[in-house]
Write a structure and sequence with these properties.
Length: about 180
């Protein structure tokens, strides 16, 4: 087997593994981005532990078929780069949507979320979701408020008693 074919088979294997191990993979058309913009995008994605790879469509189609994602082929036209996230399913969609808003040259095509092929609209909806940290903060805040309310209710009679005692003290001082 020649070296070129071996290299292509190795690339297909790597793409297949990335598609299997990623919770989210967002497909983009990067045509029109200059080097500075592409570098900035890669840095922003790297900050949230997302890998951004320019891939050959034919090799990606073979890898997609290997993992049962044949519907992905519709998004594999023209220059293609894919953002892979193995941790946070929302992170690549958020970063890419924000970047695409500021840089019209970047086009989001579609992607894969937890093993399902999704459209551009679904990627945009995913980008609008709060991040994992924001959701956890909302849950903790929701759990904390009933406790704070209960503490205030329980402290109310004690506070009222202190106010009554203070009024009695002031009244006795005024009489003396």
């Amino acid at each position: 087997m020649n070296k070129q074919r071996m290299a292509k088979e190795q690339s297909v294997q790597e793409i297949t593994e990335r598609l299997q191990s990623s919770v989210t993979a967002v497909i983009t058309d990067y045509r029109g981005l200059n080097v500075a913009q592409a570098t900035k995008l890669r840095n922003e994605l790297r900050e949230v532990n997302v890998e951004y790879k320019v891939l050959k469509n034919t090799l990606t189609k073979i890898a997609a078929q290997n993992v049962g994602l044949e519907d992905l082929n519709q998004y594999l036209e023209g220059p293609t780069a894919i953002a892979f996230s193995t941790e946070d399913p929302v992170a690549p969609a958020k970063v890419l949507a924000k970047f695409a808003k500021d840089n019209k040259a970047l086009e989001i095509k579609g992607g894969v979320v937890e093993g399902k092929v999704v459209s551009l609209e679904q990627i945009k909806a995913l980008a609008d979701l709060p991040s994992k940290e924001e959701l956890l903060a909302q849950v903790l805040r929701g759990m904390q408020w009933p406790l704070v309310g209960m503490a205030n209710v329980l402290a109310g009679p004690l506070r009222n008693m202190v106010n009554v005692l203070e009024a009695v003290r002031k009244e006795k001082e005024a009489q003396a």
